[in-house]
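Task 17 of the worksheet. Students: predict the tertiary structure of the chain below and write it out as structure tokens. Keep your answer in the requested format; marks are given for formatting as well as content.
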Amino acid sequence: MSNRRDYYRDLDAPKANSLVPGGSALIVDGDGAILMQRRADSRNWSLPGGTMEIGETLEQCVIRETKEETGLDIEITGLLGIYTDPEHVIAYSDGEVRQEFNVTYYGRVIGGQLLVSDESTDVRFLHAEQLRSEPVHNTVRLRLQHYAENRIQPYLG
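Model answer:
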């Protein structure tokens, strides 16, 4: 697994040289807790998700990635937002510098069992107040804020 470093609104950030469509799932349990994974590469808590593979839709990608990263089967139920901020880039140890391109869907668990994958050190449902003092990247906090705002329309940005 290559190491990564997120840059957000950082004047010292390297210039992006890659753009890869990706998606994530915001899944809330019956108690209002949000499904989060603790990323092995950055140690930040994040929403499950990943990048598209040829031959799949972005929805299929998010369903596949959520299963791989959390052990849970989900269905997509809506759209939280589209996040393509050019001031958020992710630099990988192999020289790739990727501009953010993430579509965050709402999802619902329909099966499976909560498991930790190679990509994470922990997977669990956490309440918003629990996440306040935990390491969460600002761009993920923005998505959590948009969820908390109960937006009628998806965020487009």
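Marker's comment: Residues 50 and 71 are 14 Å apart (CA to CA). The two ends are 29 Å apart (CA to CA).
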